[in-house]
């Protein structure tokens, strides 16, 4: 007699995410930003490792070292406004589904020249870069000639309307002075605000006497705090 096993059927969902740091240039510094403060800093010995993401308090500390009230992601007011608007929409979407504890991952590439990107600099960083970004490098070469004549920082490449504005500069966002490239994206978006997280929230509040600085808070408050933090740092 043949016995057949009946297995319960259920749906399995696969979420495929792009590697934010699969970039044509090396990432010199990374930040994992939530907008919270409780345990949001690295140990001093870990801060020197460029492969480890610094956190919110580390970002504030770097700003103090540079004698600024806060360290800024300086991409210019127009692009900053557009980026923040997209982040608000993403945060509101996550609130709708009761999700929290996500982060904005930021990767920074520092130009070796300190004044902008040079063709010889960027074309040697990654094999096949000329084929992947021919228009960017062509525009960069023209800008480089002009900049050498006028002794001015290099402007970004001309925008390509088919490419999202946050990916037009070698897949990222160039800083206003052209000395840095930023790669940004929201990560860790699968944490649901349920009974476990509510319990964790209650415990953390009792432990810290700080309902604002802990990471584990309800989705609406999490999103509001997240965006408020980014509004202070993206300019």
UniProtKB/TrEMBL annotation:
Q: Which terms under GO biological process does the entry name? A: phosphatidylinositol phosphate biosynthetic process
Q: What Gene Ontology terms describe where this protein resides (cellular component)?
A: plasma membrane
Question: What keywords tag this UniProt record?
Answer: ATP-binding, Kinase, Nucleotide-binding, Transferase
CDD domains assigned to the protein according to its UniProt record, in alphabetical order: PIPKc
Q: Which PROSITE patterns match?
A: PIPK (PS51455)
A GO molecular function annotation here is: ATP binding
Source organism superkingdom: Eukaryota
One protein family per Pfam: PIP5K
Cite the PIPK domain residue spans from the record: 1-234
Please state what the protein is called: Phosphatidylinositol phosphate kinase PIPK5, related
Q: What species is given as this protein's source?
A: Eimeria necatrix
């Amino acid at each position: 007699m043949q016995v057949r096993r009946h297995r319960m059927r259920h749906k399995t969902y696969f979420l495929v995410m792009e590697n934010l740091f699969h970039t044509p240039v090396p990432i010199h510094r990374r930040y994992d930003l939530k907008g919270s403060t409780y345990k949001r800093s690295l140990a001093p010995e870990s801060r020197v490792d460029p492969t480890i993401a610094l956190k919110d308090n580390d970002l504030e500390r770097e700003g103090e070292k540079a004698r600024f009230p806060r360290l800024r992601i300086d991409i210019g007011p127009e692009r900053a406004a557009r980026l923040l608007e997209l982040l608000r929409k993403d945060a509101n979407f996550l609130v709708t589904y009761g999700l929290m504890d996500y982060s904005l991952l930021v990767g920074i590439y520092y130009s070796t020249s300190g004044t902008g990107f040079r063709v010889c600099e960027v074309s040697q960083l990654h094999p096949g870069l000329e084929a992947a970004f021919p228009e960017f490098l062509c525009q960069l070469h023209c800008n480089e000639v002009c900049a050498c004549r006028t002794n001015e920082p290099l402007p970004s490449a001309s925008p390509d309307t088919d490419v999202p504005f946050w990916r037009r500069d070698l897949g990222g966002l160039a800083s206003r002075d052209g000395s840095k490239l930023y790669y940004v994206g929201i990560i860790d978006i699968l944490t649901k605000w349920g009974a476990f997280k509510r319990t964790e929230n209650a415990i953390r509040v009792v432990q810290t006497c700080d309902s604002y600085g802990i990471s584990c808070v309800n989705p609406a408050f999490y999103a509001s705090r997240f965006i408020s933090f980014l509004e202070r740092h993206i300019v």
